[in-house]
Every structure is written in C-alpha cells, then in structure tokens.
Amino acid sequence: MSEPAAGPLKTTPLHALHVELGAKMVPFAGYDMPVQYPSGVLAEHLHTREAAGLFDVSHMGQAWLEGPDHGAVAAALEALVPGDIRDLEPGAIRYTLLLNEKGGILDDLMVTRTKKDGVLFLVVNAACKDADFAHIEKHLPDGIRLRRIDDRALIALQGPKAADVFARFAPEAAEQAFMTGMEMNVAGFPCIVSRSGYTGEDGYEVSAAEKDAVALTKKLLGEAEVKPIGLGARDSLRLEAGLCLYGHDIDETTTPVEGALTWTISKRRREEGNFPGAKIILEQIANGAPRKRVGLLPEGKAPAREGTEITDASGRKIGIVTSGGYGPSVGGPIAMGYVEAGFAKVDTGVELMVRGKGRPAKVAAMPFVTKRFHKPGK
Amino acid sequence: MSDIRYTDQHEWVRVDGDIATIGITDYAQEQLGDVVFVELPEIGKELAAGDEAAVVESVKAASEVYSPVSGEVVDVNGEIETTPAGVNEDAMGDGWFVKLRLSDPAELDKLMDEAAYNEFVESLQ
Predict the structure, then answer these.
(1) What mean pLDDT comes out for the span A30-45?
(2) pLDDT per position as a tens digit, A49-60
(3) Which residue of A7, A152, A266, B19 has the fewest C-beta atoms within 10 A of its own C-beta?
(4) Which residues contact residue A10 at a Cβ distance below 8 angstroms, ignoring those fewer than 6 apart?
(5) What is the H or E stretch that residue A155 is in?
(6) Nearest by CB to A302, which of B33, B39, B59?
(7) Domain A15-58+151-240 belongs to what topology?
C-alpha cells in the first residue's frame, strides 16, 4: 500500500455534514474522516446490524475503464487481475485483485460491467488509488483508457433495513440482485447503485455527483431507520464479516492463495494462467501455500490486536494477527491472521501472545456472523 | 474538600485511611469510547507508582492503567470484568479498578488535585 503523502488532509463532499453531526474526525488514507459519531462505535455497529447505517466512503477511488467493446476492455483488465472479467454479465460486479509479478496483492477492488458496451466501473481502496490508477494506466494497451472519477461521492447504506429505506427513493433498487450495479435515480439524483458492501449485511454503495452528495445523504439520514456510521464501526463490521482490510490482512507480500482468496480465481483463469504471478499462484493452488489467512477466536475475553504473535502450544511462533479486536455482535474478541499451513484447519488450538502471556484461541471459520445478502426473488 | 488526586495519564486515586482506590477519569473513558474488556492485577501483587496496574480496552484500542501510587493490591473490581461498560457509566465511582494498601502516602503530594487536573484537561482541548 502506498502511504498517502504528508500535507493537508483532503476532505470528502460530506465533511461539513460529519462535523455538523458531531463526528470525531481522524486522518485516514490522507482524508479527514469520521471515526465515530456521538453514539459511539459499539452503538453504531449494532445499529447497522439491526437497522441501517450510512457510511461516507467517498475517499475510495472510482474510475471508468473504457475501450471499443467489452472483449477488449475485459482482456486489458484481465492482464492485471486473476478474476473473470470477460464473462461478467452486463450489470454484474466482480470482486478481484490487482496483482504484482510475484502474485502479491497490490489492492483489492470491485469491477462492474456497466450496461454500456466497453465500459467498466472500478472502485479501489483510498490509500492505494493513486498507485492503482498509475499501475493500470501503465499497462493498458492502445485503445483502452482509464478515466479517474474525482467528482463523485460514494455513500454506503448497509443493514437489514437498507433495502426498505432505499426503495423509498429508488424503487428499482428493491429487486436488484447482490453484486450487481446499475445507473438509476435516487431521490431524483442520477447515481450508480451497486448492491454490495463491506459489512456482511445487505445494502448498497451509491456513487453520486459531488454536488448532490449532501442532499442525497440528508434524505437517507432523514429516514427513521438510518444513522450515520463512522470508520470505527466499519472496521468492526467488516472484521466480523471476515472481509480483508487491504494493507493489513492482504498486501504486496501475500498471494491470493495465502490470503484465502483463491475463490476469486475462476476455472478459466486458472486454465489460461495469464495473470501476473500466475506461476507462483497456480503452484500454490496445486500444492498449497506455506501460510494461510484464517479466523481466530480467543477463548478468553482479551482482544488480540493487529501484530499479536500466534504460537503453538510449545511457544514457537507460527503466525501473526493482522486484524483483531472486539466483535460487538459476536459479543467477544475476534481476529484474523496468518498461520503456517499445518495450523490452518478450523478448531486447531493456538496461542495468542497478548501482553507477554500466551492465551488460548482456536482457528475459526469466517464470517463470525451470518451474512445476509439479498438473493433475487427472495 | 475533595481527597481525590489525579495523574497526567488520566488515572484518579481516592484515599480512605491507608487504602487507595484507583480508576480512570471521566475524560479518559470518554476518549477511549466503549470499554469492552478490562484486565485486573492479582490480589497481593506489589505495585510501584507508575507500574502497569490494569489494562482497559475499547472497541478501538488497548490502553494501560498505571498505578498513581505504590502499594499492595488488596481488592479488584470484578464488576467491571464482567460488565466493562460500567467504566463508561461511572468512571469516577462504581467503575473503579483496583484498591491498594498505600506503602508511601507521601507520593500523593506529587499528584494533581481536582482544580489542577481540570486545568490540565482544559489545556488538551
């Protein structure tokens, strides 16, 4: 992950609204962002799981990738990612990974095949966006063009009530399937609406013009079920959902196989083997990787934070925690991290070295909470 | 009037005879946010002033609670172990952490009184 340059913090179009709502603002990926509102991380987390939470994720990078037709633009992107872009249906979204030549992960991203032929919509991580876009542009063949979108906000509405609320402003969105994106008006504002998210809940991510962002956000926040949610709860929600935070759980030194993201590589892509680092990745798929990302459930109540050493019963270091804390919906500590392959099986006993003391934990299946994504026709 | 003393690490200590009750201030609990875990020392442990007496964790991070004074741990607050949110609800009262038998009462003189602490907190904002 490229560290954001030092200097004045950037702000999103919703910055003044966050301050007005009483948010505690902190620097994140070069932006001044709300970490929590007055109700606090715990209440915000639980509210999202019970009703609907609104998140400002405008710091993330958005871009169009354009070419003469879908085949050409998909081929250009497939040269950089292991996901199947070619066979995406119009309107479908793919979670995939930008890889380096060693199979390390430069970033994770969402790719939507828009209904316009030859146009993909990309959403990448805030801290990586400049590096990502430079990397993509450098590798594009003639006739394919990356166009950064720097004048749009990105707002997420997540939670079991998100669909009910959203339908009041965009009836079309009610029947939208999970992991699809389409252009539609929301409260009269033209938006790109993706049914996706980073909480393990049903919900939407809405790309709206900068000038419409405050009005749209106020409309959504005006609904009884919706509360604003800061980055603190966003992190605990995604951890409970078992989702990776780039720069922590995956980075340039981890491959998709080590990161337990092999599922993002389709059969065709494995057979063709024409993505960066394919040799290393395919070898790991065939013979296993030396380490693997797993979920961890401490047996006691002490949270194990990022950087905590994982050992076996004899005290030998076998891995490290990459994300860890308290899961408000789980009601106890949860973590994820990397362990040697021999310790990656669910229910394997390990120890977490918290404040110099080995504390028992078990390798656990993720997500830690049940995902509740919307299935069409439900 | 108040016999409560404060540290610049946002601990408080209230003395009753030779027993000192230690906790974190209201300002500290507010900065931490929702407390979700507390780790307390064993009864009988000897603490010197400035030693780590306990650990308090919010959803966001772990923080140490340092003992403002020296002494032997004679009691710990089991209530906040089972219900850590009690620290947020009443940091200056029922959310106390540890009771020590003071070994050097003169150490109290080095700590801030309420007016000095309030001024200190003001200076942080």
Answers:
(1) 96
(2) 999 999 999 999
(3) A7
(4) A30, A31, A32, A59
(5) strand A152-158
(6) B39
(7) Gyrase A; domain 2 (3.30.1360)
CB contact under 8 A, A232 and B39: no
For residue A301, the chain B residue with the least C-alpha distance is: B37
Min Cα–Cα distance to chain A from B76, Å: 17
Unique residue bearing structure tokens 């009269």: A188
Q: Tell me yes or no: is domain A290-378 CATH 3.40.50.11210.
A: no
Answer for the pair A185, A173: CB distance below 8 angstroms, yes or no.
Answer: no
Summarised one tens digit per residue, pLDDT across range A93-126 is: 999 999 999 999 999 999 999 999 999 999 999 9
> Cβ of A328 and B33 within 8 Å?
no
Helix residue ranges per DSSP H, chain A = 15-20, 41-50, 70-78, 129-138, 162-167, 210-221, 231-240, 267-272, 278-287
Measured between CA atoms, the residue of chain B closest to residue A233 is B59
Domain with CATH 2.40.30.110 in chain A: 290-378
Helix H segments across A67-179? Answer: 70-78, 129-138, 162-167
Is the minimum CB–CB distance between A300 and chain B shorter than 8 Å? no
Q: Are strands A189-194 and A317-327 parallel, antiparallel or unpaired?
A: unpaired
Q: Comparing C-alpha atoms, which of A210, A269, A344 is closest to residue A78?
A: A269
Q: Are residues A305 and B62, on separate chains, in Cβ contact within 8 Å?
A: yes
What number of C-beta contacts closer than 8 Å exist between A and B? 41
- Please report where in the chains the tokens 């950064």 appear, as a residue: A148
From B2's Cα to the closest Cα of chain A, the distance in A is 30
Say whether B57 and A232 touch across the interface (CB within 8 A): no
Residues of B near A (CB-CB distance < 8 A)? 33-34, 36-37, 39, 55, 57-62
B74 CB burial (10 A radius; 0-12, 13-18, 19+): middle
A119-171 tens-digit pLDDT: 999 999 999 999 999 999 999 999 999 999 999 999 999 999 999 999 999 99
Q: Which two tokens stand for residue A299?
A: 């047996």
Q: At what angle do helices A231-240 and A41-50 cross, to 10 degrees?
A: 60
CA-CA distance, A259 to A289, in Å (whole number)? 10
CATH number of B4-124: 2.40.50.100
CB of A232 within 8 Å of a chain B CB? The answer is yes
Burial of A317 (0-12, 13-18, 19+ CB in 10 A): exposed
Nearest alpha-carbon partner for A289 in A263, A260, A310, A266: A260
Q: Where in chain A is the domain with CATH 3.30.1360.120?
A: 15-58+151-240
- In terms of Cβ atoms closer than 10 Å to its own Cβ (0-12, 13-18, 19+), residue A191 is buried
